[in-house]
Amino acid sequence: EQGVTLPGMTIVCGDSHTATHGAFGALAFGIGTSEVEHVLATQTLKQGRAKTMKIEVQGKAAPGITAKDIVLAIIGKTGSAGGTGHVVEFCGEAIRDLSMEGRMTLCNMAIEMGAKAGLVAPDETTFNYVKGRLHAPKGKDFDDAVAYWKTLQTDEGATFDTVVTLQAEEISPQVT
């Protein structure tokens, strides 16, 4: 809400739900206390290559279906450990239709499927949300930032270690 998290950033924090920031197109993940100390001392963090997972939710969700319904349907399909060791990219029409708050819910809940991080590529919804925030770039700097942020999309033909596809119209309200 302050515009501190921006697309393309790498964010680590001593909280497992740091992945929420992935809604902005940032790579964000939780780390342990020893790793926090290392980051604060060196501004670096050694990480092994994570596996990649693409979760595409095709089509439009029915009225009343929320981001939480979508992510619970995803977890129902992958299992609670289905994302273990992965960085997950959420994509597809149903994901693009979500508000920033919905995207934050989705990325936050990526941890509940065992993923290291979840993210959504930045788009006009992201740019409109960030624009005018206290710490967001202003004026020409914002325009230049958006031009760069638009490049933060998955390459055409990119390969993923795991691909999961759901049809949005098949997602029903979930009980939580």
TrEMBL record:
Recorded superkingdom: Bacteria
A GO biological process held by the record: L-leucine biosynthetic process
Catalyzed reactions per annotation: (2R,3S)-3-isopropylmalate = (2S)-2-isopropylmalate
Keyword annotations: 4Fe-4S, Amino-acid biosynthesis, Branched-chain amino acid biosynthesis, Iron, Iron-sulfur, Leucine biosynthesis, Lyase, Metal-binding
Enzyme type, top EC level: lyase
A molecular-function term among this protein's GO annotations: 3-isopropylmalate dehydratase activity
InterPro entries: Acnase/IPM_dHydase_lsu_aba_1/3, Acoase/IPM_deHydtase_lsu_aba, Aconitase_4Fe-4S_dom, IPM_dehydratase_rel_enz
EC number: 4.2.1.33
Cofactor: [4Fe-4S] cluster
Pathway: Amino-acid biosynthesis; L-leucine biosynthesis; L-leucine from 3-methyl-2-oxobutanoate: step 2/4
Pfam families for the chain: Aconitase
Record Gene3D superfamilies: Aconitase, domain 3
Domain Aconitase/3-isopropylmalate dehydratase large subunit alpha/beta/alpha as annotated: residue spans: 1-176
Subunit (UniProt): Heterodimer of LeuC and LeuD.
PANTHER family cross-referenced by the UniProt entry: 3-ISOPROPYLMALATE DEHYDRATASE, HOMOACONITASE, MITOCHONDRIAL-RELATED
Protein purpose: Catalyzes the isomerization between 2-isopropylmalate and 3-isopropylmalate, via the formation of 2-isopropylmaleate.
Protein name: 3-isopropylmalate dehydratase
Organism from which the protein derives: Escherichia coli
Lineage: Bacteria, Pseudomonadati, Pseudomonadota, Gammaproteobacteria, Enterobacterales
